[in-house]
Amino acid sequence: MLVVGDSLSAEYGLARGSGWVALLERRIAEQGIAATVVNASISGDTTSGGRSRLAALLKLHRPTLVVLELGANDALRGLPLAMTRDNLAQMAAAARQAGAKVLVVGMQVPPNYGRKYSDDFAALFADVARGADAALVPFLLKGVADVPGAEVLFQADRIHPRAEAHPTILGNVWPVLRPLLM
Predict the structure, then answer these.
(1) What pLDDT was estimated at residue 78?
(2) Quick one: pLDDT at residue 131?
(3) Catalytic residue among 6, 9, 74, 160
(4) Which of 2, 28, 71, 127 stands 20 to 30 A from 118 (CA)?
């Protein structure tokens, strides 16, 4: 399994081994599932960056499952949604063409971006997943960013979740991911 993501998957600001991808590796091992996890996530990465490095990652690792956790940095930079959608769709298609199943991980942005942008951004992940016949986690930070008092679950930058939020993040991913491993 190959995880192509940004800081939310790359353990930004966390002790190594405490992020959701590391927790996923442990869960896979505990459940005796024969799968190797390669975390190719890079803090600050955009869908353009992920798209540019995906071919080499697919060739090197030959994954049977690709998790696409990108797009948040596109939104933070105000990049066109059509570009984000196209990059994710091309990545999903390339992974499928390489013989891998695909899991698209959705994200949401705060309402200060405007209702239309926020709604359209959240919807693009489902659009990509539908178009690629891929699985979808609608919102990676469900139960973290959308709960009362959420600020205590985030680092001082209010963007990156603290280690104690990562089990919840894994809880969002695992029910969708597990069937893809079987």
Answers:
(1) 87
(2) 97
(3) 160
(4) 2
pTM for the full predicted model: 0.96
Domain-embedded: residue 101: yes
For the question of residue 166 being annotated catalytic, the response is no
Distance between terminal CA atoms of the chain? Answer: 12
- CATH number, domain with residue 54: 3.40.50.1110
> Could you give the number of structural domains in the chain?
1
Instruction: Check residue 72 and give its pLDDT.
Output: 96
Residue 7 designated active-site: yes
41 is a catalytic site residue: no
Can you spell out the DSSP letters for 62-93? --SEEEEE--HHHHHTT--HHHHHHHHHHHHH
> Per the residue annotation, which of 6, 7, 9, 74 is the catalytic one?
7
The whole domain housing 90 covers 2-177
Positions in the chain whose pLDDT score sits under 50: none
- Structure tokens that stand for 47 in this block: 């869908």
The answer to whether residue 182 sits within a structural domain is no
Q: Phi then psi for 100, rounded to 5 degrees?
A: -100, 150
**What whole-number distance in Å separates Cα of residue 101 and Cα of residue 115?**
32
Residue 159 domain flag: yes
Check if the beta carbon of residue 9 is closer than 8 Å to that of residue 19. Answer: yes
